[in-house]
Write a structure and sequence with these properties.
single chain, alpha+beta, Aminopeptidase, seven-stranded mixed beta sheet, three-stranded antiparallel beta sheet
Length: 202
């Protein structure tokens, strides 16, 4: 991952502009200072080749969990901040970052998927939607399968609304099982530019 110069203050407008240019913000260090990053290689999940294990698909169809969209964004992002696996030793999602994404949610740019067991939030994910691109940020799970159910629901929604890009920034073994692939930054930007030219609504 390529680290770009630190910013002392970040606005929602800068966050949106960063995603449009292939960058994303992340807090690092014990103080949670915000920096810009470019992931090289970049990881995406192709929506037309999204893979689901038969056992997971069966569990998803039989699940009694309730899945919603955009009903508990702040709860989801705060839960994700406690479940990040890429940089577990550092503050990756500071209070400043959380506030930024909550404001982006209030403006209609950031979205969440929630998985409920009764009235208990047991899993979910969040990210940003711009035109035909969705930038997945993080997910969490408090019970088996919950985060995976959230991802399945997200992909169903993106396919339904004919999105062209599901960005995951980096690849992990967990994402690889769903068909995540890596590509060069230039190839990623070509897909991103195309997706940003297409009008879609989450």
């Amino acid at each position: 991952m390529i680290k770009l110069p630190k910013l002392f203050s970040v606005t929602p407008e800068q966050v949106l502009a960063a995603y449009q240019h292939g960058m994303f913000p992340m807090s690092r260090g014990q103080q949670g200072d915000i920096h810009w990053y470019i992931s090289e290689p970049r990881a995406i999940i192709p929506l037309d080749t999204f893979k689901v294990r038969r056992s997971l698909q069966k569990a998803y169809k039989k699940s009694h969990y309730r899945i919603t969209f955009d009903t508990a964004f702040s709860q989801v992002i705060r839960a994700c901040a406690r479940h990040r696996e890429v940089f577990p030793e550092e503050v990756w999602l500071s209070d400043e970052m959380i506030d930024l994404y909550i404001e982006l949610h209030q403006r209609g740019h950031a979205h969440s998927v929630e998985v409920w067991r009764g009235e208990e939030l047991v899993g979910g994910l969040y990210g940003l939607a711009m035109q035909a691109a969705f930038f997945g940020e993080s997910m969490f799970s408090r019970v088996p399968y919950a985060s995976q159910f959230a991802l399945l629901a997200l992909v169903e929604r993106l396919r339904q609304h004919r999105f062209l890009l599901l960005d995951t920034q980096v690849i992990t073994p967990h994402l690889a099982q769903f068909g995540a692939i890596e590509m060069t930054h230039d190839d990623y930007m070509a897909i991103l530019v195309h997706a940003l030219r297409e009008e879609r609504h989450f």
